Amino acid sequence: MSEDDKLSAEDRLIADYFKPVATHPGALGLTDDAAFLTPAPGTDVVLKTDAIIGGVHYFAEDDARDVARKALRVNLSDLAAKGATPLGFLVSLALPEDAGADWLARFALGLREDAAAFACPLFGGDTVRTPGPVMVSVAMFGSVPTGAMVRRAGARPGHRIFVSGSIGDAALGLVLRRGAIWNLTSAQRGHLIARYLLPQPRNALADAVRACASAAMDVSDGLVGDLAKLCRVSGVAAKIDVAAVPLSEAGRAAIAVDPALRETALTGGDDFEVLCTVPEPMAEAFRSAAQAARVPVADIGVIEAGEGAHFFDAGRELTFKRLSFSHF
Amino acid sequence: MSEDDKLSAEDRLIADYFKPVATHPGALGLTDDAAFLTPAPGTDVVLKTDAIIGGVHYFAEDDARDVARKALRVNLSDLAAKGATPLGFLVSLALPEDAGADWLARFALGLREDAAAFACPLFGGDTVRTPGPVMVSVAMFGSVPTGAMVRRAGARPGHRIFVSGSIGDAALGLVLRRGAIWNLTSAQRGHLIARYLLPQPRNALADAVRACASAAMDVSDGLVGDLAKLCRVSGVAAKIDVAAVPLSEAGRAAIAVDPALRETALTGGDDFEVLCTVPEPMAEAFRSAAQAARVPVADIGVIEAGEGAHFFDAGRELTFKRLSFSHF
C-alpha cells in the first residue's frame, strides 16, 4: 500500500485543491490540525465570519469559482470598512454529493485567485458532506495597529458621511437575475448582474478609513438600514441627500425606467461598499487618500444630533417599506 | 417607531441570545461588523475551524444545547492537542425554518455554558437561513508562546506514544444510538452514548502537552488512522501494544460481547482525546503533569524508524478494514 493509498478521500481533496492556497508558513501546508499566526508587535487581530449558502446567497448554478470569491469578498469587505489589512482566512465547506471534483477544482481556483489578489492566504479548513445545499463559511483575519479598528460607534454631529463606489447595483442585479426586463442595454444589464455575482470589496480604501474615519461599516444589507445601525450604535442621527447617493450609469437607467427601483437601490443588500463618517476637518484628507487609492467616494450627508437615518429628496423626507435586507 | 422596532429579526436574535456569550471587550457586545483581540506580546494565535451538521455529526433530535457544546468542543479539542489556551471563537450558524426561538435559546445556553467552562468567549458570528439541515461552523482561536504550537511533525524514533482518557467510547456510543443491543448495563450504555453526544476535550492537558510533547494531535477520526497521519507527517513509524490502549469499563464490556467491536473502538471517530509523542527523558514529567491536571494518560507504544502505524496484539500485528472515519 503506497502512502497515497493511505490518504483518505478527504485528505486527498485537501491536498489536491487547497494546499496551493495555503501559502502562509503558519498554515503548515495543511498537514496539521491547526495553523498559527504571529501577530506583528503593536497590532490587533480583527475577526470576522460570514457564510453564504447555495440558492440563498447565490444561484445554485453559479460558477464555483465565483462562489469561492464571493465567500471571501463578503468578509474582505468588512476588513476594508474596519481599516484592517487582510492576514488570511479559514474556510468551512459543506458539500452535497453532487458537488464533485469539477466543482471543487473551480472553487479552489477562485480561492487561489482571490487569496493572491488580496494577499490573504488560507490558514486551514474543514470539508464535510451535507444532505443540504453548499454552504461556505469563511472566518477572516485582519491586522490593525493596536486599538485602531474603526468601529460603528464614533460618529458625532457635524461629521460628514461618505460612501464608496455606487449603491444599489447588486440589488438591481438580483432583480434582473430573477427575470426583470427594464429595456437596459446589454452592457447595463451585464454591469448590474456582475455586481450581484461578485462583490468588489474596497480593501484599497482601508488605510484611508483608518486614517480619517470616526465610524465605518460596510454596506451589506442596504444603505438605509446599515446607516440606521451605525447611527444607533453611535447615538446620533444622519441626514442624507438622496441626490448625492452615488448611482452607476446602469443603476440610473434602471431607475429612470421604474422610479420604484430607487427604493430597491437604497435598501437592497450586497453593495459591499464602505460607509463611513469623517470629521469635517479630515474630509479633504479623506477625499485625497481615496483618490490616491483609486476608490471613488461621495459625500452624501451629515451626522446630526438625534436618532435614525433620514433620507431627503429635494427637501422632502422619504419613507421606505423596509429598511434593509434580512434573511429572517 | 421605537428603536427596538427598527431592529431586524436577525439583530434581535443576536441581541437576545448571543450577546451574553460575547463577554470579551473586543467583541464590542456584537454591535459591530467585526471584533478584535490584542494578542499578548510573545504569543502566536492558533487557528482552527470545524463544522458539524445535523443528521451527519449528530442526531437531528439532539438537544440544541448539546449541539452548541459539541460544535465548540470538537474545536477546543484541537487547541488542547496543540498546547494552546483558548482565546475565543466565531460561530457561523445556518438554520432551517423549523429551528425556532426554542432551539436558539437552547443553543445559546449551550454556547454560554461552555464559553464559561472553557474561558472561551464568543467574538462574533453570522446566522443565515438554509433550506438544508442545521450547520454550525466554529472558528476557534487559541494562544501559545511564539513558536510553541505543538505540531504533528516532531515524533522521532524512541519517543513514547501517549493517549489520554479512553478510546472508542464515542464510536461504540454511535453504534448504540443506531440501535445495537449488547446486553450492557444501563450505566454502561449511558456512558458510551454520552461520550458520542458530548466530547470531553482535554484542555486541562494543554500545558503538559506543550511542555513535554514532541508531536501531538487530537483523536477525532479514529486512533489508527490519526496515528498514521502523525507518523506520515513526522516521517516515522509507530508500534502500538493494543493491550495498552485505554478502554473504559463500558468499552471493555461491549468488546467482550462482540470482539469485532475492538476494531470499531480503534478506528471509529469522535474520541477527542489527545494523542502525543514524548521523548523518553520527558515521559515521567509528562505523567506527573497529566496527573496534576487530573487527566488520565496511557503509554501505548513507541515511535520507530519506518512508516505507518502498526498495532500488535500479543506479538501479532492487526489489520483493519478501514483506517479511520471519513465522511467522504
Can you characterise this structure?
Two copies of one chain form a homodimer. Chain A is α+β, with helices and mostly antiparallel strands. The first copy, chain A, has two domains: 143 residues, PurM-like, N-terminal domain (60s Ribosomal Protein L30, Chain: A); 158 residues, PurM-like C-terminal domain (Phosphoribosyl-aminoimidazole Synthetase, Chain A, domain 2), CATH 3.90.650. Chain A contains eleven helices and twelve strands. The longest helix of chain A is centred in the N-terminal third of the chain and has 18 residues. Chain A is globular. At the A-B interface, helix 2, strand 1, strand 2, helix 3 and strand 3 of A face helix 2, strand 1, strand 2, helix 3 and strand 3 of B.
> Regarding quaternary structure, how should these chains be classified?
homodimer
Identify the CATH class of the largest domain in chain A.
Alpha Beta
Give me the strand/helix succession of chain A: HHEEHEHEEEHHHEHEHHEHEEE
Per CATH, the superfamily of the largest domain in chain A is PurM-like C-terminal domain
Distance between the termini of chain A: 51 Å
Give the mean pLDDT of chain A: 93
Q: Could you name the CATH topology of the largest domain in chain A? A: Phosphoribosyl-aminoimidazole Synthetase, Chain A, domain 2
Structural class of chain A: alpha+beta
Runs of chain A with pLDDT <50, length 5+?
A: 1-7
- The order of strands across the largest sheet of chain A is 7-9-6-10-8-11-12
- Number of domains in the coordinates of chain A? 2
Query: Which percent range fits the helix content of chain A?
Result: 25-40%
What does the radius of gyration of chain A come to?
21 Å
Which of globular, elongated, flat, extended, rod-shaped describes the shape of chain A?
globular
Measured by DSSP, the beta-strand proportion of chain A falls in 15-25%
